[in-house]
Amino acid sequence: MATAYKEYKVMHIAEGGCGTIFLGASGLPLKKVEAELNAQAAQGWQVVFQVIEQKRFWLFWSREAMIVTLGR
User: In the chain, what are the domain boundaries?
Assistant: First the structure.
């Protein structure tokens, strides 16, 4: 049985640009992701879908980002 949500919210959380440039990669800020998801859950939001994307960053680097769809 599918849950019907009345409203949706999309969040975009990306890894830091400085870490990408100086370290080659820094990964997603997991503490930031956790804190943001906990704050949204306290307001009644639930994770509906999430995807990790790799985007080109400037000339030589790639940057990782998480796109999360929330519903309530």
Answer: 8-71
- pLDDT tens-place string over residues 16-27: 655 444 555 556
Three-state SS across the chain? CCCCCCCEEEEEEECCHHHHHHHCCCCCCHHHHHHHHHHHHHCCCEEEEEEEEEEEECCCEEEEEEEEEEEC
Q: What angle do CA 42, 52, 41 make, to 5 degrees?
A: 5
The whole model's pTM is what?
0.70
Q: How far apart are CA 14 and CA 52, in angstroms?
A: 10
User: Can you tell me the distance from the alpha carbon of 17 to that of 64, in angstroms, rounded to the nearest whole number?
Assistant: 10
All residues at 6 or more sequence positions from 57 whose CB lies less than 8 Å from its CB, including other chains: 17, 20, 63
